[in-house]
Amino acid sequence: MREYYKLLDVLRTTLNQDVLINTITQGDISEIDIDKKNIFPLSHIQIGQATLDVQVITFNVTVFAMDIRDINPKPRTDKFVGNDNEIDNMNSMLAVLNRVFKSLVQRGDDFTIVGLPTLEPFYESRENLLDGWAMSFDVEVPNIEISLC
Fold first, then answer.
1. Checking DSSP bridges between strand 23-26 and strand 56-68, what pairing results, if any?
2. What residues have CB less than 8 Å from 70, skipping those under 6 apart?
3. Which of 57, 85, 61, 68 is nearest to 126 (CA)?
4. What are the distances in angstroms from CA 148 to CA 9, 26, 53, 142?
5. What are the beta bridge partners of residue 136?
6. Residue 82 three-state SS
7. How many other β-carbons are positioned within 10 Å of the β-carbon of residue 60?
8. Long-range pairs of 107-114 with CB within 8 A, sequence gap ≥ 24
9. In the prediction, which pLDDT does 149 show?
10. Is the model's pLDDT at 127 over the cut of 90?
């Protein structure tokens, strides 16, 4: 049984092809900002629940795309735009996840997206100021590698 490995590999390969992403991580989301060697923009893969069926395994997947917010030391008078790149980060990271979704849909033969993904913006302020999106979706993969014989 290698479906979990295959899913992670497809997601990693897809994210590696995106010109905006420099670092890809997976696992516990609370661990990503600890590694000081991370080069942003960063994408993080988190596999949630899995449902087994006779023909398919359905995984709940969340893919994060985030970048560091740069704050301009010069005060800006435009209250809407502010003095940072938050809007640019949100737009760029949304584009990354849109490309990931479209790439997975085109694969069709071995991975099937069930329904439509939901995207939620986030603004993180732990060690770094991070802006980005979390895209959650369900994906079905064939459950054919285990034999009962």
1. unpaired
2. 84, 85
3. 68
4. 26, 31, 14, 16
5. 62, 118
6. coil
7. 15
8. 107/10, 110/6, 110/141, 110/142, 111/7, 111/10, 111/139, 111/140, 111/141, 112/56, 112/139, 112/140, 112/141, 113/137, 113/138, 113/139, 114/58, 114/138, 114/139, 114/140
9. 55
10. no
CB–CB of 29/46 below 8 Å? yes
Between 22 and 37, the more confident residue is 22
Which one-letter amino acid corresponds to residue 13? T
Residues 98-104 have a mean pLDDT of 95
Handedness of CA 121, 49, 29, 109 (dihedral sign): negative
The pair of three-digit structure tokens given for residue 106, joined into one six-digit string: 């085109």
Cis preceding-peptide flag for 41 (omega within 30 of 0)? yes
What proportion of the chain, given as a percentage, has pLDDT over 70?
89
Instruction: Report residue 35's pLDDT band, with 50, 70 and 90 as the boundaries.
Output: low
Beta-sheet strands, E only, within 55-97? 56-68
pLDDT, position 147: 58
What is the chain's Cα-based Rg?
18
